[in-house]
Protein backbone atom coordinates (compact mmCIF):
# COMPACT_ATOMS: atom_id res chain seq x y z
CA UNK A 1 0.00 0.00 0.00
CA UNK A 2 2.90 2.32 0.85
CA UNK A 3 4.63 1.56 -2.44
CA UNK A 4 1.44 2.22 -4.40
CA UNK A 5 0.87 5.51 -2.58
CA UNK A 6 4.43 6.59 -3.34
CA UNK A 7 4.01 5.57 -6.96
CA UNK A 8 7.46 4.01 -6.99
CA UNK A 9 8.69 0.94 -8.76
CA UNK A 10 10.10 -1.67 -6.38
CA UNK A 11 10.70 -5.15 -7.83
CA UNK A 12 8.60 -7.59 -5.84
CA UNK A 13 9.23 -11.27 -5.33
CA UNK A 14 6.21 -13.06 -3.94
CA UNK A 15 6.72 -15.97 -1.59
CA UNK A 16 4.51 -18.84 -0.60
CA UNK A 17 4.13 -18.60 3.15
CA UNK A 18 1.90 -21.68 3.13
CA UNK A 19 4.81 -23.64 1.68
CA UNK A 20 7.11 -22.16 4.30
CA UNK A 21 9.37 -20.39 1.82
CA UNK A 22 10.11 -17.81 4.52
CA UNK A 23 11.41 -20.51 6.86
CA UNK A 24 14.11 -21.95 4.61
CA UNK A 25 17.77 -21.68 5.49
CA UNK A 26 18.36 -19.52 2.43
CA UNK A 27 15.76 -17.01 3.56
CA UNK A 28 16.89 -17.08 7.19
CA UNK A 29 20.34 -16.08 6.03
CA UNK A 30 18.69 -12.84 4.91
CA UNK A 31 16.36 -12.50 7.90
CA UNK A 32 17.07 -14.76 10.89
CA UNK A 33 13.49 -14.21 12.09
CA UNK A 34 12.08 -15.84 8.95
CA UNK A 35 9.56 -13.08 8.40
CA UNK A 36 8.32 -11.05 5.48
CA UNK A 37 8.42 -8.40 4.15
CA UNK A 38 12.13 -8.11 3.51
CA UNK A 39 13.84 -5.46 1.38
CA UNK A 40 17.17 -5.87 -0.37
CA UNK A 41 18.99 -2.54 -0.27
CA UNK A 42 21.21 -1.27 -3.07
CA UNK A 43 24.27 -2.28 -1.02
CA UNK A 44 23.11 -5.92 -0.98
CA UNK A 45 22.07 -5.97 2.67
CA UNK A 46 18.56 -6.81 3.82
CA UNK A 47 16.10 -4.98 6.04
CA UNK A 48 12.98 -6.44 7.58
CA UNK A 49 10.20 -4.75 9.61
CA UNK A 50 7.55 -3.12 7.44
CA UNK A 51 7.84 0.35 8.93
CA UNK A 52 11.64 0.35 8.70
CA UNK A 53 11.30 -0.59 5.04
CA UNK A 54 8.78 2.19 4.41
CA UNK A 55 10.99 4.70 6.20
CA UNK A 56 13.95 3.72 4.05
CA UNK A 57 11.94 3.99 0.84
CA UNK A 58 10.72 7.42 1.96
CA UNK A 59 14.32 8.54 2.29
CA UNK A 60 15.19 7.21 -1.15
CA UNK A 61 12.05 8.63 -2.74
CA UNK A 62 11.10 11.79 -0.87
CA UNK A 63 8.30 12.80 -3.25
CA UNK A 64 4.74 12.37 -2.00
CA UNK A 65 5.96 12.34 1.61
CA UNK A 66 4.16 9.97 3.98
CA UNK A 67 6.37 10.50 7.05
CA UNK A 68 6.25 14.33 7.08
CA UNK A 69 8.54 17.06 5.81
CA UNK A 70 9.76 18.90 8.93
CA UNK A 71 11.20 17.53 12.19
CA UNK A 72 8.05 18.52 14.12
CA UNK A 73 5.75 16.99 11.51
CA UNK A 74 7.82 13.83 11.41
CA UNK A 75 7.67 13.58 15.21
CA UNK A 76 3.88 13.86 15.28
CA UNK A 77 3.42 11.43 12.41
CA UNK A 78 5.83 8.94 13.98
CA UNK A 79 3.88 9.19 17.24
CA UNK A 80 0.58 8.56 15.45
CA UNK A 81 2.05 5.71 13.43
CA UNK A 82 3.14 4.08 16.70
CA UNK A 83 -0.23 4.67 18.32
CA UNK A 84 -1.96 3.01 15.36
CA UNK A 85 0.47 0.13 15.46
CA UNK A 86 0.41 -0.45 19.22
CA UNK A 87 -3.30 0.23 19.76
CA UNK A 88 -4.98 -1.05 16.61
CA UNK A 89 -2.77 -3.13 14.35
CA UNK A 90 -0.91 -5.31 16.86
CA UNK A 91 -4.01 -5.85 19.05
CA UNK A 92 -5.88 -6.96 15.89
CA UNK A 93 -3.08 -9.41 15.09
CA UNK A 94 -3.05 -10.77 18.64
CA UNK A 95 -6.83 -11.00 18.80
CA UNK A 96 -6.88 -13.19 15.71
CA UNK A 97 -3.87 -15.28 16.64
CA UNK A 98 -5.22 -16.12 20.06
CA UNK A 99 -8.94 -16.56 19.38
CA UNK A 100 -9.32 -17.94 15.85
CA UNK A 101 -9.34 -21.73 15.25
CA UNK A 102 -7.09 -21.25 12.21
CA UNK A 103 -4.15 -20.53 14.49
CA UNK A 104 -4.90 -23.21 17.09
CA UNK A 105 -2.52 -25.79 15.59
CA UNK A 106 0.09 -23.15 14.81
CA UNK A 107 0.69 -21.28 18.08
CA UNK A 108 -0.05 -21.73 21.76
CA UNK A 109 -3.24 -19.73 22.15
CA UNK A 110 -4.31 -17.74 25.21
CA UNK A 111 -7.95 -17.10 24.27
CA UNK A 112 -8.90 -14.94 27.27
CA UNK A 113 -5.98 -12.63 26.76
CA UNK A 114 -6.55 -12.67 23.02
CA UNK A 115 -10.15 -11.61 23.50
CA UNK A 116 -9.08 -8.76 25.77
CA UNK A 117 -7.44 -7.10 22.77
CA UNK A 118 -10.91 -6.26 21.55
CA UNK A 119 -11.21 -3.81 24.45
CA UNK A 120 -7.97 -2.12 23.43
CA UNK A 121 -9.23 -1.74 19.88
CA UNK A 122 -12.68 -0.52 20.92
CA UNK A 123 -11.18 2.04 23.31
CA UNK A 124 -8.89 3.29 20.55
CA UNK A 125 -11.85 3.53 18.17
CA UNK A 126 -13.76 5.62 20.70
CA UNK A 127 -10.79 7.92 21.00
CA UNK A 128 -10.24 8.17 17.24
CA UNK A 129 -13.92 8.94 16.74
CA UNK A 130 -13.33 12.09 18.80
CA UNK A 131 -9.99 12.94 17.18
CA UNK A 132 -11.44 12.63 13.67
CA UNK A 133 -14.14 15.20 14.40
CA UNK A 134 -11.74 17.96 13.48
CA UNK A 135 -9.51 16.50 10.76
CA UNK A 136 -9.81 14.12 7.83
CA UNK A 137 -6.73 11.97 8.51
CA UNK A 138 -5.10 10.38 11.56
CA UNK A 139 -2.37 12.98 11.80
CA UNK A 140 -4.02 15.97 10.19
CA UNK A 141 -4.91 17.35 6.77
CA UNK A 142 -2.89 14.89 4.74
CA UNK A 143 -2.64 11.14 4.28
CA UNK A 144 0.39 9.60 6.05
CA UNK A 145 1.94 6.32 7.15
CA UNK A 146 -0.27 6.56 10.26
CA UNK A 147 -3.34 6.16 8.04
CA UNK A 148 -1.79 3.15 6.33
CA UNK A 149 -1.04 1.43 9.63
CA UNK A 150 -4.39 2.38 11.11
CA UNK A 151 -6.33 1.29 8.04
CA UNK A 152 -4.54 -2.05 7.94
CA UNK A 153 -5.39 -2.56 11.60
CA UNK A 154 -9.04 -1.64 11.08
CA UNK A 155 -9.32 -4.00 8.12
CA UNK A 156 -7.71 -6.84 10.03
CA UNK A 157 -9.95 -6.28 13.06
CA UNK A 158 -12.93 -6.41 10.71
CA UNK A 159 -11.79 -9.84 9.51
CA UNK A 160 -12.12 -11.06 13.08
CA UNK A 161 -15.54 -9.50 13.48
CA UNK A 162 -14.52 -6.32 15.29
CA UNK A 163 -16.25 -3.58 13.33
CA UNK A 164 -16.21 0.17 13.75
CA UNK A 165 -19.99 0.05 14.25
CA UNK A 166 -21.78 3.38 14.52
CA UNK A 167 -18.71 5.55 14.82
CA UNK A 168 -19.43 7.95 11.99
CA UNK A 169 -16.18 9.89 11.82
CA UNK A 170 -14.15 6.72 11.89
CA UNK A 171 -16.34 5.19 9.17
CA UNK A 172 -15.94 8.24 6.96
CA UNK A 173 -12.16 8.08 7.37
CA UNK A 174 -12.11 4.33 6.68
CA UNK A 175 -14.34 4.62 3.60
CA UNK A 176 -12.23 7.46 2.23
CA UNK A 177 -9.09 5.38 2.47
CA UNK A 178 -10.82 2.29 1.17
CA UNK A 179 -11.64 4.28 -1.99
CA UNK A 180 -7.95 4.91 -2.70
CA UNK A 181 -6.37 2.86 -5.44
CA UNK A 182 -3.65 1.70 -3.02
CA UNK A 183 -6.20 0.05 -0.70
CA UNK A 184 -6.77 -2.78 -3.16
CA UNK A 185 -3.77 -4.68 -1.79
CA UNK A 186 -5.10 -4.76 1.75
CA UNK A 187 -6.76 -8.11 1.84
CA UNK A 188 -6.56 -10.71 4.54
CA UNK A 189 -7.18 -14.44 4.57
CA UNK A 190 -8.67 -16.42 6.12
CA UNK A 191 -11.93 -14.56 6.47
CA UNK A 192 -13.60 -15.24 9.80
CA UNK A 193 -16.92 -16.89 9.06
CA UNK B 1 19.46 7.61 28.76
CA UNK B 2 19.12 8.90 25.19
CA UNK B 3 19.45 12.52 26.34
CA UNK B 4 22.54 11.70 28.41
CA UNK B 5 24.14 9.86 25.50
CA UNK B 6 23.48 12.82 23.21
CA UNK B 7 24.87 15.18 25.83
CA UNK B 8 22.07 17.65 25.19
CA UNK B 9 20.25 19.90 27.58
CA UNK B 10 16.52 19.28 27.64
CA UNK B 11 14.55 20.86 30.49
CA UNK B 12 12.90 18.06 32.42
CA UNK B 13 9.78 18.28 34.53
CA UNK B 14 9.33 15.26 36.75
CA UNK B 15 5.85 14.04 37.50
CA UNK B 16 4.47 11.90 40.28
CA UNK B 17 2.87 8.92 38.58
CA UNK B 18 1.89 7.53 41.96
CA UNK B 19 -0.18 10.66 42.54
CA UNK B 20 -1.68 10.29 39.07
CA UNK B 21 -0.31 13.58 37.75
CA UNK B 22 -0.29 12.04 34.26
CA UNK B 23 -4.02 11.34 34.47
CA UNK B 24 -5.22 14.90 35.14
CA UNK B 25 -7.34 16.79 32.64
CA UNK B 26 -4.54 19.31 32.19
CA UNK B 27 -2.08 16.60 31.20
CA UNK B 28 -4.57 14.77 29.00
CA UNK B 29 -5.02 17.96 27.01
CA UNK B 30 -1.37 17.49 26.05
CA UNK B 31 -1.52 13.71 25.67
CA UNK B 32 -5.01 12.14 25.55
CA UNK B 33 -3.44 8.79 26.48
CA UNK B 34 -2.23 10.13 29.81
CA UNK B 35 1.24 8.67 29.37
CA UNK B 36 4.78 9.84 29.89
CA UNK B 37 7.24 10.77 28.54
CA UNK B 38 5.91 13.78 26.69
CA UNK B 39 7.99 16.39 24.87
CA UNK B 40 6.94 19.97 24.23
CA UNK B 41 8.27 21.04 20.84
CA UNK B 42 9.48 24.53 20.04
CA UNK B 43 6.17 25.19 18.25
CA UNK B 44 4.24 24.53 21.46
CA UNK B 45 2.82 21.17 20.36
CA UNK B 46 3.41 17.94 22.27
CA UNK B 47 4.76 14.58 21.22
CA UNK B 48 4.52 11.37 23.20
CA UNK B 49 6.03 7.92 22.48
CA UNK B 50 9.63 7.59 23.67
CA UNK B 51 11.10 6.56 20.34
CA UNK B 52 9.31 9.37 18.47
CA UNK B 53 10.73 11.82 21.00
CA UNK B 54 14.26 10.42 20.59
CA UNK B 55 13.95 10.55 16.81
CA UNK B 56 12.89 14.19 16.96
CA UNK B 57 15.76 15.11 19.29
CA UNK B 58 18.16 13.31 16.94
CA UNK B 59 16.97 15.52 14.09
CA UNK B 60 17.37 18.67 16.17
CA UNK B 61 20.77 17.59 17.51
CA UNK B 62 22.45 15.44 14.86
CA UNK B 63 25.79 15.20 16.70
CA UNK B 64 26.63 11.84 18.27
CA UNK B 65 24.13 10.10 16.01
CA UNK B 66 22.17 7.24 17.56
CA UNK B 67 19.84 6.51 14.63
CA UNK B 68 22.51 6.26 11.92
CA UNK B 69 23.91 8.64 9.32
CA UNK B 70 22.96 7.15 5.94
CA UNK B 71 19.60 5.86 4.70
CA UNK B 72 20.88 2.25 4.75
CA UNK B 73 22.31 2.60 8.23
CA UNK B 74 19.14 4.23 9.49
CA UNK B 75 17.09 1.40 8.00
CA UNK B 76 19.14 -1.28 9.75
CA UNK B 77 19.17 0.57 13.06
CA UNK B 78 15.43 1.20 12.88
CA UNK B 79 14.90 -2.51 12.23
CA UNK B 80 17.05 -3.47 15.21
CA UNK B 81 15.39 -0.88 17.42
CA UNK B 82 12.02 -2.42 16.54
CA UNK B 83 13.28 -5.94 17.13
CA UNK B 84 14.55 -4.93 20.56
CA UNK B 85 11.28 -3.22 21.35
CA UNK B 86 8.95 -5.94 20.09
CA UNK B 87 11.01 -8.92 21.27
CA UNK B 88 12.61 -7.77 24.50
CA UNK B 89 11.24 -4.53 25.90
CA UNK B 90 7.49 -4.97 25.35
CA UNK B 91 7.55 -8.67 26.36
CA UNK B 92 9.36 -7.63 29.56
CA UNK B 93 6.68 -5.02 30.24
CA UNK B 94 3.88 -7.51 29.60
CA UNK B 95 5.54 -10.23 31.66
CA UNK B 96 5.66 -7.94 34.68
CA UNK B 97 2.22 -6.45 34.21
CA UNK B 98 0.55 -9.82 33.94
CA UNK B 99 2.47 -11.87 36.50
CA UNK B 100 3.52 -9.53 39.32
CA UNK B 101 1.22 -8.96 42.34
CA UNK B 102 2.00 -5.23 42.22
CA UNK B 103 -0.17 -4.87 39.11
CA UNK B 104 -2.97 -7.17 40.26
CA UNK B 105 -5.18 -4.34 41.56
CA UNK B 106 -4.26 -2.07 38.65
CA UNK B 107 -4.98 -4.08 35.50
CA UNK B 108 -6.80 -7.23 34.52
CA UNK B 109 -4.02 -9.80 34.57
CA UNK B 110 -3.71 -12.83 32.31
CA UNK B 111 -0.94 -14.70 34.16
CA UNK B 112 -0.54 -17.60 31.71
CA UNK B 113 -0.16 -15.33 28.77
CA UNK B 114 2.05 -13.00 30.79
CA UNK B 115 4.35 -15.87 31.68
CA UNK B 116 4.61 -16.89 28.03
CA UNK B 117 6.48 -13.66 27.34
CA UNK B 118 9.45 -15.22 29.08
CA UNK B 119 9.77 -17.60 26.14
CA UNK B 120 9.83 -14.70 23.70
CA UNK B 121 12.57 -13.03 25.71
CA UNK B 122 14.61 -16.22 26.14
CA UNK B 123 14.38 -17.00 22.42
CA UNK B 124 15.52 -13.48 21.60
CA UNK B 125 18.42 -13.81 24.04
CA UNK B 126 19.51 -17.05 22.36
CA UNK B 127 19.43 -15.31 19.03
CA UNK B 128 21.28 -12.21 20.28
CA UNK B 129 23.92 -14.43 21.86
CA UNK B 130 24.73 -15.63 18.35
CA UNK B 131 24.47 -12.19 16.74
CA UNK B 132 26.83 -10.66 19.30
CA UNK B 133 29.57 -13.16 18.51
CA UNK B 134 30.74 -10.93 15.70
CA UNK B 135 30.04 -7.38 16.84
CA UNK B 136 30.06 -5.36 20.06
CA UNK B 137 26.68 -3.65 19.70
CA UNK B 138 23.21 -4.65 18.60
CA UNK B 139 23.48 -3.03 15.22
CA UNK B 140 27.21 -3.17 14.64
CA UNK B 141 30.37 -1.34 15.67
CA UNK B 142 28.72 1.61 17.33
CA UNK B 143 26.25 2.27 20.11
CA UNK B 144 22.74 3.14 18.86
CA UNK B 145 19.12 3.55 19.91
CA UNK B 146 18.79 -0.22 19.46
CA UNK B 147 21.22 -0.73 22.35
CA UNK B 148 19.25 1.69 24.51
CA UNK B 149 15.96 -0.10 23.85
CA UNK B 150 17.53 -3.54 24.23
CA UNK B 151 19.36 -2.62 27.43
CA UNK B 152 16.20 -1.16 28.96
CA UNK B 153 14.38 -4.37 28.09
CA UNK B 154 17.12 -6.56 29.57
CA UNK B 155 17.17 -4.52 32.77
CA UNK B 156 13.42 -4.67 33.11
CA UNK B 157 13.35 -8.42 32.47
CA UNK B 158 15.99 -8.79 35.20
CA UNK B 159 13.67 -7.00 37.64
CA UNK B 160 11.13 -9.76 37.05
CA UNK B 161 13.72 -12.47 37.50
CA UNK B 162 14.46 -13.19 33.85
CA UNK B 163 18.24 -13.09 33.65
CA UNK B 164 20.59 -13.51 30.73
CA UNK B 165 22.16 -16.48 32.55
CA UNK B 166 25.21 -18.04 30.96
CA UNK B 167 25.01 -16.22 27.66
CA UNK B 168 28.50 -14.77 27.59
CA UNK B 169 28.27 -12.48 24.58
CA UNK B 170 25.04 -10.99 25.79
CA UNK B 171 26.50 -10.49 29.28
CA UNK B 172 29.54 -8.76 27.87
CA UNK B 173 27.33 -6.43 25.85
CA UNK B 174 25.08 -5.74 28.85
CA UNK B 175 28.00 -5.07 31.19
CA UNK B 176 29.60 -2.74 28.69
CA UNK B 177 26.46 -0.66 28.44
CA UNK B 178 25.90 -0.80 32.18
CA UNK B 179 29.29 0.85 32.61
CA UNK B 180 28.25 3.87 30.56
CA UNK B 181 27.46 7.04 32.47
CA UNK B 182 24.03 7.21 30.79
CA UNK B 183 22.97 3.85 32.25
CA UNK B 184 22.57 5.32 35.72
CA UNK B 185 19.03 6.48 34.91
CA UNK B 186 17.81 3.01 34.02
CA UNK B 187 16.29 1.88 37.26
CA UNK B 188 13.00 0.20 37.81
CA UNK B 189 10.74 -0.15 40.81
CA UNK B 190 9.30 -2.20 42.32
CA UNK B 191 12.10 -4.72 42.52
CA UNK B 192 10.76 -8.26 42.35
CA UNK B 193 11.69 -9.94 45.60
Architecture overview:
The structure is a homodimer of 193-residue chains. With 193 residues, the first copy, chain A, is mainly alpha-helical. Chain A has two domains: 2-60, Glutaredoxin; 71-185, Glutathione S-transferase Yfyf (Class Pi), Chain A, domain 2 (Up-down Bundle). In chain A, 51% of the residues lie in helices and 3% in strands. In chain A, strands 1-2 form a two-stranded antiparallel ribbon. In chain A, helix 4 packs antiparallel against helix 5 and helix 4 runs parallel beside helix 6. The first copy, chain A, is globular, with a radius of gyration of 17 Å. Chain A starts with a helix and ends in a 15-residue tail after the last helix. Residues 189-193 of chain A have low confidence and may be disordered. Chain A binds chain B through residues 32-33, 39, 41-43, 45, 47-49, 51-53, 55-56, 59-60, 71-72, 74-76, 78-79, 82-83, 98, 108, 110, 112-113, 116, 127, 131, and chain B through 32-33, 39, 41-43, 45, 47-49, 51-53, 55-56, 59-60, 71-72, 74-76, 78-79, 82-83, 98, 108, 110, 112-113, 116, 127, 131.
Amino acid sequence: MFILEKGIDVPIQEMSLQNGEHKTEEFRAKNPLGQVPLLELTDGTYVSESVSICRYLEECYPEKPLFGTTPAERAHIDMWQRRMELRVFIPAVEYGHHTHPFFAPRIKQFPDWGASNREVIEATYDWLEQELRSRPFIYGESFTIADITGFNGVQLAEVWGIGIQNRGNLAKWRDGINARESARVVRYAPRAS
